[in-house]
Amino acid sequence: MAKKVETIGVLTSGGDAPGMNAAIRAVVRKALSQGLKVKGISQGYKGLLNEEIEDLHPWSVSDIISKGGTILYTARCAEFRTEEGQDRGAEICRKHGIDGLVVIGGDGSFNGAKQLAARGINTIGVPGTIDLDIACTDYTIGFDTAVNTAMEAIDKVRDTSTSHERCSIIEVMGRNAGYIALWCGIANGAEDILLPERYDYDEQKLINNIINNRKRGKKHHIIINAEGIGHSTSMARRIEAATGVETRATILGHLQRGGSPTCRDRVYASMMGAYAADLLAEGKSNRVVGFKNGEYVDFDIAEALDMQKEIPDYMVRVSKAMSS
What we know:
Elements: E1 7-12, H1 20-33, E2 37-41, H2 44-49, E3 53-56, H3 83-95, E4 100-105, H4 107-118, E5 122-127, H5 143-163, E6 167-172, H6 179-187, E7 192-194, H7 203-215, E8 221-226, H8 232-243, E9 247-251, H9 263-281, E10 287-292, E11 295-300, H10 301-306, H11 313-322
Parallel strand pairs: 1-2, 1-4, 4-5, 5-10, 6-8, 6-9, 7-8
Antiparallel strand pairs: 2-3, 10-11
Helix pairs in contact: 1-9, 5-6, 7-8
């Protein structure tokens, strides 16, 4: 039988992502519209263990849909990875009357949600990560904003790279996934894209490509390097020494996490947050919300975590053809 839920909590965990506030807003207002009470938990699982919990009302989430970051803040929590921490987290939920919980974050956050579900707290995960690396969903909250932020920055770097006839290595975020790098590589017309899933660490290929392009009269060379490969500064020194072409590294870093979310991130986050509230109202637990084949769906958390996601081979082939 489905467990009746009367009070739900909502938290954001792991790295922040533009659109998290839109998801929080949707959870709160959709749950309240169904007669549920809502409590906000600050600082993710760390805040749960510290009992940083307060009631949320419709006005608590006014005017946040356009804001980057998360009004509930976020933090890593080593203690919650232990059985003792998970037991205490479930007890704190019960102490505050929280019988359902929406966790907005990535796969590590969903592992925590799975543990709480096993301890009797209904949990629903909402995929909030700029990395686009959660296999059960075609879209994750924050990716669109992050990739547009990176694209605009790379356009600016290209301008100065062309002016100085340089090679520019631009490192983008993504943890161990190459989706931001691949999308930016195509959108920015990069000459080379280095993806953790595909890179063979043969720098001589890059060097040969730069030299051959110079012989053909190309004045600049853009390399998009994924965070999962990294070492952009030392790579730039080696390439300059080997080619004689002035080479600079630019690491875009955390600017990709911030900023007002795009329309797409606001809408997807709102739909996913509302869907999560609906699932809890129905008594569902241990589920992850996803967007698959044009529809909002949900999966068992364990099943979702076991799924594998691969870089689309056709996008890689297109990116190589376009850079020729």
